[in-house]
User: What shape does this take?
Amino acid sequence: MNCRDYQHQITLLLYEELAEQARPGLEAHLRECAACQGVYEAETNVHSVLSEDTAGWDIPSDLLIESRRSLADALDRVEQKRSRWRLPALSGILTPMRLLESSALVAMGLALGVYVGNQQPQVSTSAVQDNQISTIPRNGSISNLRIVSADPATGQVELAGEVSQPLRLQGQMEDATVRSLLFSALHDASNPGSRLRAVQVLASKPNDEPIEEALINALIYDDNAGVRMQALEALKQYANEQHVRAAFMHTLGNDDNAGIRVQAIEALTIKNSNDTELAKTIREVTEKDDNSFIRAKGLQFVETAK
Amino acid sequence: MKRAAQRVHESEDEKLLIEQAQSGDREAFEQLVRRHDRDILRLAFHMLGNREEAREVFQETFLKAYRSLDRFRFESSFYTWIYRIATNVSLDHLRKRQTLREEISYESDTELHPDRPALKDTLAATTYYSNPERRLYGKEVGEKIHEALKTLSEKERLVFELRHYQGLRLKMIGEIMGSTEETAKNYLFRATQKLRAYLTNV
Assistant: This one.
């Protein structure tokens, strides 16, 4: 083995990829060869510079959310294209049962169209005479419609699906229904804008324990950085409460968004600039932070609290 | 890094999800995406260096996977398979970018419009080093590393990215590249040699 081979092994050693049995040979060579020892030291130094740099390379959380959303849209488009392509192919393989199902679907569609189009409820066709269709709201929309059973002998068809209808209501925040809907909006996974607005609205009602809990949940668990930031802002009014401070501390130690972590320090220190015990805890949490600004903020608070 | 290593061991649960997705279950596919999407986005973001292209690579990778999932035969792990797609898409983007750069003469652009910032500076400004967090970390060192990484060939850059930043083992990197562990070792060695030459005084 020559020096180049050993230098190759140095790289593998630093990346923990060197076979265990090769290690003694490399160590012996490094003791004897000043040139390779120099390479080892230089490479260790560069490796540590690069490894330190790794910490700041995490992806912005909003980019992940944005990318997931645009992927979901793209998958929808692919599926739509696929379903348009598949429709004509079905016509060649229609069995009598499929024919019955198709007829029933057409009849059902016609009947629903009649209802949704604000026609008289008694309008119907023979295919749906004994159905529960009159329970469908006039302005409702139907999704996930499927055929549960279809009997070609009797012509009886059972369908199932989901009906939803537009909702609009006004009321006080104390009203149980309004509150329940606001809390639902706070958990609307598909709409971060709605969650953000729900945080803003709920935050306007002070000294309300369930709201406080909901805001803490949003701060800790919401996927969207904007929502978490808004929840943190809203919770600042409760900054003296033990469990709220615990939530801020959790955010400081765990949130992947540096901006929110900075705000968490501010929220923790805003009313406690001389608390040396708090300063100690903040120091412990921030000194492990990948972000140098957060580390500096932690140190700054420790200095101020002295 | 640990998370990356754990995923090497493909679970029965994942096998079931793949089979469901292969039979057209969109939800199963989305669950598979969720298991790997953070790693794939990180790879794309590091390789391409800007949000827009990272998002494009992310989307292209999973759309390709979705379209060709029925051809996945469990000969490798799903993790290796999806990484292979992502690295190929990333390399395609890097090549397109290189072609674009070659088509544009920076010098003539600057000479014709001396009041405008040079196009190369504008392109450089779109990288992750324009991210405020990166600036906070230490602009000087970060930029030096960025410059050093630019001296690597595509394959060297890819192997270095997968080993150093993504924490994958060289054996798996060889599989992802459709090559061997030895080849991956050689690329890593050449990459670290170049980086050492560039960064020794940092």
